[in-house]
Recover the amino acids of this structure.
């Protein structure tokens, strides 16, 4: 009947549309395929240049912030370390002071 014909037409239209999309994707891939090696070389070259600049920047920063050999030693506060209770106020004056 007419319903069966309509159903077949819809299925064949969908199948034809899928094939058309796949043909378009294949054509686009085929057109881009010769340029993929060139693109890969450019991407790798860019990656190498960026890594090289980052390494140079890190090395320069490490050399400029190096501590001189004759730098003054850091003062160390001696004494027992006891945890503060919740009722105690910690301020610059009380840090390192003996606790009572």
């Amino acid at each position: 009947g007419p319903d069966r014909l309509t159903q077949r037409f819809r299925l064949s239209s969908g199948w034809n549309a899928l094939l058309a999309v796949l043909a378009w994707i294949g054509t686009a891939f085929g057109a881009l395929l010769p340029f993929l090696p060139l693109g890969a070389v450019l991407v790798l070259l860019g990656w190498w240049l960026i890594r090289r600049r980052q390494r140079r920047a890190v090395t320069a920063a490490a050399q400029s912030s190096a501590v001189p050999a004759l730098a003054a030693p850091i003062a160390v506060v001696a004494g027992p370390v006891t945890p503060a209770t919740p009722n105690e106020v910690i301020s610059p004056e009380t840090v390192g002071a003996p606790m009572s």
Observations:
- The mean pLDDT is 78.
- DSSP finds two helices and no strands in the chain.
- The first helix runs from residue 2 to 32.
